[in-house]
Design a protein that fits this description.
The chain is mostly helical and about 130 residues long. The chain has seven helices and two strands. Helices cover about 55% and strands about 10% of the residues. The model has no long low-confidence stretch (mean pLDDT about 90).
Length: about 130
């Protein structure tokens, strides 16, 4: 349904604005939101439609147990797209998986909680696996 709605909409700032805003838990400065909307508008509408449709068609969840490398999932507590519950379900299926939930972010913890995100990732990458 999301892919169909994106395909039917005019590719304008009015279409993009709620999508970009929905990534964040904490309001972002207006200049930053303007910048992010410009980036989103510069993407092809066809690519956005394909990405949304691909997410819906993907059978990735069913294949997570096949992952054989150490894995870390980082999520924002307030992510409405991939909730922490989704992350926990993924963690259960992936051997050697660590789940980190950052408490003050939505779908973009790497932007909203950059320091905490960086610390979690560096800790994961530098610990002997």
């Amino acid at each position: 349904a999301k892919a169909d709605a994106l395909a039917a909409a005019d590719w304008t700032e009015a279409t993009i604005a709620p999508v970009v805003a929905g990534f964040f838990y904490q309001p972002q400065p207006p200049a930053e939101m303007d910048r992010l909307r410009r980036i989103a508008l510069s993407a092809s509408q066809a690519a956005a439609v394909e990405a949304a449709g691909s997410n819906a068609r993907s059978r990735t969840f069913e294949n997570l147990a096949a992952i054989r490398v150490s894995t870390m999932i980082v999520q924002g507590r307030h992510d409405r797209v991939r909730t922490p519950e989704h992350g926990a379900a993924m963690q259960e299926r992936i051997p050697q998986c660590r789940l980190v939930v950052l408490e003050r972010s939505g779908h973009t913890p790497q932007l909203e909680e950059a320091d905490a995100f960086h610390a979690a990732v560096m800790s994961f990458l530098t610990v002997a696996q």
